[in-house]
Amino acid sequence: MLNTDRFVQSGLDYLAQRHVLTYMEDAVSQLLESREDISQYGIARFFTEYFTSVRQGTHILFREFSFVQATPHNRASFLRTFWRCFRTIGKSGDLLTAKEYHCLLQLLCPDFPMEITQKAARIVLMDDAVDCLMSFPDFLFAFQIQFYYSEFLESVAAIYQELLTGKNPNTVIVPTSSPGQHRSRQALSEGTPLDGVEATAFCQCLESLCDKSKFSCPPSAVVKEVLSSVQRLTFYGFLMALAKHHGMNKALGALPDKTDLLVDPRMDQELEKLITQVSGLSISSSTNSNGDTVNLPPRLSPRVSSPWRPLHHRRKMDMESDGSTEETDSSEN
């Protein structure tokens, strides 16, 4: 059945909600930057390829961080790409440090900030030493909420700190709260950082934050469920509970369930093809029965349905050597 709710929005509101202007500005900027190359096959094809890549989620590859985090769709696309590119790390059971995970992130986004990686590591390690080893699934789910909900978590940290010191967060107003509830919030000064804050008061503040914020927030039902299961909790305890919550991951929709995190049949098929190609090259390099060396066939490119790449990135990569180009393309897939 056709959803008529979308017709209630004005045109400008719809464009703003879908961030259409962000993509139009980016597309026009790339069009002007690469107009000489584009003249070879036309503007219409350029816009077709650009918005096809946006739909497929490949438009964030090798882009600057300011663009990668510009829209919720960009963030979800980056999370999905990171998972697909480095899923084999989790499949092999390797454990990496925060710095090593950050290096992987920089392969997709060269100026990705270390601060976000460190904050994700603190969620996994509960604010312990961030140079400890972490599994790929643990880091990925923590990184998901830290990256996608970064503005929300900054506000949550400020609210938590005020509650911890016994203050009533001035920026959070809860119309349904009674004077007794305000007094109970002020009484939290008796708590210590190890005890955390009182979950009910924390939940009330976060409900108000989610209702009034203009940035992405987790589903209120998930937040309530996490906070209703305990009486007190710490900041990182709350973030860890969010990262592990099944409903949290399902609502965001960027990553599969934890049971399916290391399963990607399509990617496995492509890897098997590459292994077969490499094995075929090795066999063909052996000598024949007469002792003559068999000539190798032309080297096969590992590119498999290579996604669209902004034209200025194409020119940059064309200047690189063949080996580096193939390595980059394989990371895309």
Quick gist of this model?
The protein is an all-alpha fold. Helices cover 61% and strands 2% of the residues.
Commentary on this structure:
- Helix content is 61%, strand content 2%.
- The strands form two sheets. The protein has a two-stranded antiparallel ribbon.
- Helix 8 (114-125) crosses helix 9 (136-148).
- It is built from 18 helices and four strands.
- The protein has helices spanning 11-18, 20-33, 35-38, 43-56, 65-68, 72-92, 98-108, 114-125, 136-148, 150-164, 179-186, 199-212, 220-228, 235-244, 246-252, 265-284, 311-318, 322-332, and strands at 95-96, 134-135, 197-198, 232-233.
- By secondary structure, the chain is mainly alpha-helical.
- It is globular, with a radius of gyration of 25 Å.
- It has three domains: 10-56; 66-148, no CATH class; 150-258, no CATH class.
- It starts with 10 loop residues before the first helix and ends with a helix.
- 25% of the residues are buried.
What is Rg?
25 Å
Helix content: 55-70%
Strand content: under 5%
Average pLDDT rating: 78
Poorly predicted spans: 171-192, 293-333
Count, helices:
18
Instruction: Output the strand order for the largest sheet.
Output: 1-2
H and E order: HHHHHHEHHEHHHEHHEHHHHH
Silhouette: globular
The helix-and-strand class reads mainly alpha
Largest sheet: 2 strands, antiparallel
Number of domains: 3
What's the count of strands?
A: 4
